[in-house]
Amino acid sequence: MNAMTARRRCRPIWRTSRHAAGVGLVTAIFLLVVLAGLGVAIVSVVTGQQSSAALDQQGARAYQAARAGIEWAMWSHLRSGTPLPCQLAGTAATSFAMPPQASSLAAFTVTISCNTPVAGHFLLTATACNQPLNSVCPNTSPGPDYVQRQLQAEL
User: Is 130 buried (19+), middle (13-18) or exposed (0-12) by CB count in 10 A?
Assistant: First the structure.
């Protein structure tokens, strides 16, 4: 065995050949890019789910505001004798903000309208929205996060 062969055999294991140099760096960069992409994807999915859940909650509140508007109109008409908006001369609709200000419905405005009587019956329509146009719902040019619900009842 000559000196050159002995030197090759005694080479430490951690030393690599020149052909394998830099493979670890390329692998590490590849893994970092993949993990960063995965992180961005997870953040975008979670953000989308949170905004969807918030809009769903606002939709439920708008439904409750519209329902409260229908109930208020029916109660005021049946119990107090207050005329419906379509019974008042020159009034097409009545709008009001949801009281009290501390409730979760305070961000909504409700517009109550009704058609002219057909066979003695009125069709009440309550439209609740969180971005009224001139204090009236529905808004024809809503902004982002606009929520609207509409309910009808026959009286």
Answer: buried
CB-based burial, 34-55: b 16+ in 10 Å, e otherwise = eeeeeeeeeeeeeeeeeeeeee
| Verdict on whether the full-model pTM lies above 0.85 | no
> Digits of tens for pLDDT over the chain (155 positions)?
565 555 556 555 556 566 666 788 889 999 999 999 999 999 999 999 998 999 899 999 999 999 998 888 888 778 877 666 666 655 567 777 777 776 888 889 999 888 766 777 778 889 999 999 888 888 889 888 899 999 998 87
Task: Give me 120's structure tokens.
Answer: 């003695």
Domain ranges in the chain? 23-154
Q: What is the Cα–Cα distance from 125 to 73, expressed in whole angstroms?
A: 10
Compute the half-sphere exposure of residue 122: CA atoms within 13 Å on the CB side of its CA.
19
> Considering Cα of 78, then 150, then 95, then 51, what sign does the dihedral take?
positive
